[in-house]
Design goal:
514 residues; alpha+beta; 41% helix; five-stranded antiparallel β-sheet
């Protein structure tokens, strides 16, 4: 096999010990210039590469140098810069004229090549020679051919990867980049910067270490792109990858805004909120929780465990005192289990006439939330209302006349003891949904027929203006009842029964017929 590229010959001359970087470079040159390599003579394997550089341009080169520059397929100086930066540290010194004319020597990072730079009259003479003149054996050539296919696959994969991949020397200079990195350079620094070598660093602050998130600002649209950057050490060099993280950043910002909105909303609630994560540590709470439970803010901020939270409540006497600690701990375990099922709801009566309604609710991912609601005012109002109802009932029971009260919709509301003694059958409680129709049916069974009951039903359900009226009915035992029907505010009706009085003429006629 003949090699038309001197630099390729140099790589082969180092054999298998030339290093991974040299092998990768060789494979790339082989894939690009296979036809030219076959025409190159084996006798030129050890020819050095020599270049004359003046005013930032290659003005001359030896035969091997000319052939090598032609094989790059791009601008001479740009191609030479890219090659040198890919192989040597501080490659720019080799191309820059020395002020005092001293000779500069440099060895490639893999130790395969040596570069010698000399300056005369502002012209740089650059010479690149191999570190060894050993010719490759058949085994080395076969090994290189086997690596060629694998390296071409790796090159295609990295070149077409949708994320940024690049390699930097120990001094931070990019020595190899993929297509995505080059496109990012164009968007960030412009097309001109992408045509020069070495390429600018996209992330100057990036160093080896843990993954970091960094941003780039596009030059044309002034938009910010976010990237998750990772690093892998490769000897003295570093291999970096950067994945687009715009979706992640957007999702995190939306989540942060949502949490801020949620926090502001929770802060306005008068109900204390405590959310525990799946590990049963306090994940979120609002100011009302601190106000209702008297738990210190610093204690809540430390994200205590649920058991510690309940212990602190017990210590502050903000939960019912248990009979014994063991049963209390068991009840707390049951509390947690009930909250997970969404069935926990209790009323805690606390010292100082405080009453809390505590509710447990399950949340996604195994979290649970407890709501602490101060219902002391509600309970006080209920107690006062109950006392008033009981007092009103007592006043009614003290009346000698039987009385009953109906709502505007004809629902039986209340009666007294005299009423129950008179009519006997009474609903189970004062809030029963018995109607005036059901009630008058009972009255009809114990009294002689009379149109008064029908008139009463119409009177109770009448939504217009009403006036008080009276009537007399006769019980089946012969006693007469004076009936008084009184309209109440809100559409209600009160009925009062009193023994005595003569039966009306209509009633007497009905009795005679019977």
């Amino acid at each position: 096999m003949f090699f038309s590229d001197p630099m390729t010959a140099i790589v082969i001359s180092v054999g298998a010990s030339g290093g991974l970087v040299a092998l990768m470079y060789l494979a790339l040159k082989i894939s690009r210039q296979r036809a030219a390599q076959r025409r190159f003579r084996a006798s030129r394997i050890n020819d050095p590469l020599m270049f004359l550089i003046n005013d930032g341009a290659v003005v001359d080169a030896n035969y091997s140098g000319h052939f090598y520059l032609a094989s790059l397929g791009q601008g001479e100086m740009r191609g030479l810069k890219q090659t040198l930066h890919g192989q040597f540290d501080d490659a720019e010194k080799l191309l820059t004229p020395s002020r005092h004319g001293q000779m500069i020597r440099a060895v490639s990072r893999d130790g395969a090549f040596q570069a010698i730079s000399e300056t005369a009259h502002s012209t740089v003479r650059l010479k690149i020679i191999p570190q060894t003149s050993a010719l490759p054996g058949k085994e080395d050539v076969f090994r290189l051919n086997a690596l060629e296919g694998e390296l071409e696959t790796l090159r295609a994969a990295t070149e077409n990867a949708p994320y940024l991949v690049w390699r930097e020397s120990s001094s931070g200079v990019p020595v190899w980049v993929n297509h995505a990195y080059l496109e990012a350079v164009k968007k960030t620094f412009g097309i001109k910067a992408a045509r020069e070598w070495p390429l600018p660093r996209l992330f100057p602050e990036l160093r080896r270490g843990n993954p970091v998130r960094l941003s780039l600002t596009e030059r044309e649209h002034e938009t910010t792109e976010w990237f998750e950057c990772h690093s892998i050490p490769l000897g003295q060099d570093s291999l970096f990858t950067a994945f687009n993280a715009n979706s992640t950043v957007k999702a995190e910002n939306q989540l942060r805004e949502f949490m801020q909105t949620l926090t502001q909303t929770f802060a306005q609630l008068t109900i204390g909120l405590a959310i525990f994560d799946r590990s049963r540590n306090l994940a979120l709470f609002n100011p009302s929780l601190n106000e209702l439970t008297n738990l210190p803010v610093d204690f809540l901020a430390r994200r205590p465990h649920l058991s510690d939270f309940l212990d602190k409540l017990r210590e502050k006497k903000m939960m019912p005192e248990p009979r014994d600690y063991r049963s209390w701990r068991d009840s707390m375990a049951e509390l947690e289990a009930a909250a997970v099922d969404g069935s926990y709801s209790e009323t805690w009566s606390l010292p100082g006439n405080l009453t809390y309604r505590v509710t447990g609710r399950p949340h996604p991912d195994g979290a649970i939330a407890f709501l602490f609601e101060d219902i002391s005012a509600e309970m006080t109002l209920n107690r006062h209302f109950r006392q008033e109802v009981e007092m009103g009932q007592a006043l009614l029971d003290n009346m000698e006349d039987a009385t009953a009260v109906f709502s505007s919709s004809g629902v039986y509301l209340q009666s007294n003891k005299a009423y129950r003694d008179l009519w006997g059958e009474v609903p189970d409680d004062t809030l029963s949904a018995s109607s005036v129709t059901d009630t008058t049916r009972v009255w009809h069974e114990k009294a002689h027929p009379t149109p008064i009951w029908g008139d009463l039903r119409d009177f109770v359900l009448d939504q217009g203006d009403r006036v008080e009226w009276t009537g007399v009915v006769q019980l089946r035992d012969g006693r007469n009842l004076d009936c008084r029907f009184i309209p109440l505010s809100g559409g209600g009706t009160q009925v009062i029964f009193r023994f005595g009085g003569d039966a009306p003429v209509e009633t007497k006629r009905l009795l005679e017929v019977v």
